Amino acid sequence: MNRRNFLRNTGFVAAGSLFVPAFMKPLEAMALDELSLYKNLVVVQLSGGNDGLNTVIPYGNDIYYQKRKSIAIKPEEIIKLNDMQGLNPNMAALQEIHDQGWMTIINDVGYPNPDRSHFRSMDIWQTGSDSNQFLSTGWIGRYLDSNCQTCKFPYTAIEVDDSLSLAMKGQTKKGIALKDPAALFRNTNDPFFKSMLQNDKEHLDEDNLGYLYKTMIETSSSASYIQNTSKIYQSKSTYPNSGFANQLKTVSKFISSGLKTRVYYVSLSGFDTHVNQIGQQGNLLKQYSEGMAAFLKDLKSNNKLDDTLVITFSEFGRRVEQNASNGTDHGTANNMFVFGGKLKKQGIFNAAPNLSDLDTGDLKYQLDFRQVYGTILDKWLDVNNADILNKKFNTLDFI
Amino acid sequence: MIAKDNFFKVKHLYNRAGFGISYTDLEKLSRKNLEKTVEHLIETSQKDDPIALVNDYESKRQLLAQAGLYSKKDLTDEEKKMRQQIVREQNEVSRDLNIAFVNKMINTDAPLREKMTLFWHGHFACRNNNPFFAQQLNNIQRANALGSFKTLLVEVSKAPAMLQYLNNQQNRKGKPNENFARELMELFTLGRGNYTEQDIKESARSFTGWMYDKDGSFIFRKNLHDDGTKTFFGKIGNFEGEHIIDIILEKPETAQFIAQKVYKFFVNDTPNDAHIKELATTFYNSKYNIAAMMKKMFTSDWFYDPENVGTKIKSPAEFLVGLSREFYVTYNKPQVLIQLQSSLGQYLFNPPNVAGWPGGQSWIDSSSLMLRMRIPSLVLNDGEIDFSGKADPEDEAVIALSRTATSNANANNKPKSYVNANADWPKFLETLPKGLTPLALTEFLLQPKLNTKITSMVSDNKGLRSTAVEITSMPEYQLC
């Protein structure tokens, strides 16, 4: 990249103009206002390997009850979606969402030669790699790298957290992690931080020091942009009192205040339920469902639901047979949830998991998770998925 | 009067080959000629002082108990409790081990050996829940850090931590598991593109039977070893693991691959082919003597070229260790070191995958940079930290267990924590020459050349202490 390019890609003419008001609304952003089809993607990560079979329960299959003697959910408690599958009773909040047609469940999503280590499998899901391939960039990061018309701002991708996940890191561009826009704004307006940036033209170079300054400038500009755009917005909706719901509330605030961010990333952890699963997973699914339902209804009331797509994944599902501690061990394929106001196929997308055709006790995957990513990249984010995923994946018909 | 030129060279040498240098030592070494200083550096790093935190006997008892529990199908409540207890103890000791490694780097008087250990820690990247195995691998990397790469490679390959991590424990005659064989060539020696899938298959067969026993010691199980004829890189024989390693080391591509990685770690993110070639040749000709290659590097003029000085982004380990070493910091709650590593993206003993940490610019994003710039004031001025960071995926089971029944367990009303560290300011100030100006201190603490902005920010009427906090909070301090 030459110097001119570098300056252009930062989105400003020079750092010196950083604190002048014109900077708050860069030229590109104004042009973007005219793009009517502004779509958001929200990625929800359930960390620890959520037990998909006790989430979307194949109650119509006897094998489920045979393999899960002490942790199976009784048929009468299940929120039935069709003759075969239904939701865990702790997910009651999602019934209404399902009935509105805002929800799709994709069964058996996985990848060839699955890895049962949390870390490795999470790595694979976040980078979109093959199971024997090591990528140092994430799939959303590479989307940022592609520098498409709608993804060139430093605030194109926001993770509502203290630190940034690998999924959000590209080679040249990275998303931004923040839990509290006001706190980040305060930090970047700290006199010392500001003095480091002021009148600093000599550092806008391509080397590592230039990269550090570029990151500081972008952080500072993003913090101002996010804070100034979203601070006036007041949500009228009530959210449950949980950390997860708070993350979603922040995302809703950003979306509803018209932030030109395209991708949001949030996570909920604690799903590694080897022991006494029922209560633990139940609490988490309740938090998840109640938070999600509040979020989707909030978006609906702000007319943003049609422009928003939410996906939920976990690094793997769990084995079909329960273990001796009333829990489940690491498995393979898992279901994914998709939410939005413009779903092409609503309800259950594909056949329920086949519990009689297993690979040494584990579900066989029907769909590669990169087909789901590929569909979103092609049809929602308007980029060619082969450019991001390193090979072309067939798209699916859920959007 | 010391030669300014030599002063900066020695400072650069100790920042890259170690974790920085005190002003007193820097003045002393600047008076010698540079080659003597490099020899001194290697000489002082001869001593191998292993980490002896994890108790051998206790770990073996746990291993045996664990093996017994895992082979049983239905556990009694008593046995379940015992298993949980072992996992809990292991997690605790694993955290202590991490802190022991960090403290070793902070306090070492063999800086090059520890820096090389950190290098091999990333090169032979491995995760293992068993702290005894993890300590053993770390000690292998330390003991051979400057010795023969062949010995290092063989010992790493036989270490239970690696045998388990790369599934060689499951690699047996008739049912080969190729994981170890593939990473051995792709990541540890030759690099991608220098071998075929057939080479992987044949070498996997050769490593069948390389296992560890219930005690956690390496064992070659002849009955699980495939002793048939293998063809590896055109050679035919009844190869066993060590033969494969010998054949791999005969290939100059291995020396080239390691030299390139060393160059990127110690010299510059951007490889310089001519310089790497020099290192690779020295390495290969010395029969893979690591110290010989390092000496060649540190005595080459190009090592001190301006483009190689103050231009590398410190890894989180280098940043935290360097800061703590410089200011003689003690951590009253050392747990915070783990939180910081994890928030900055380099949780030692927990690499993202077997390829290790990608390094360079990937260390830096908006949140990690903001945190790095705040850490000096937190550590040196005992500030408050409102940064909770993410859970490590391996800790999920613990989180799942510790979750309370209330649904707001995750609510963000966590108490704020303090870094709770003490810098030994009197000791630090004592190492500085009398009358040192804030500007001269800045020149000492920063590796990049000072520019007009920094010189104007550092004024003479500020005390040395506040100057130091300010300087270490600058983006320039992220470079070495």
From TrEMBL, chain A:
Task: Enumerate the Pfam families for this protein.
Answer: DUF1501
Q: Which InterPro entries match?
A: DUF1501, TAT_signal
Membrane-crossing segments per the record: none
Q: Which PANTHER family match?
A: BLL7424 PROTEIN, DUF1501 DOMAIN-CONTAINING PROTEIN
Identify this protein by name: Twin-arginine translocation pathway signal
Species whose genome carries this gene: Pedobacter kyungheensis
Automatic annotation (TrEMBL), chain B:
Source organism, top-level taxon? Bacteria
InterPro entries from the UniProt entry:
DUF1800
This protein is called what? Uncharacterized protein
Q: Which organism is it from?
A: Pedobacter kyungheensis
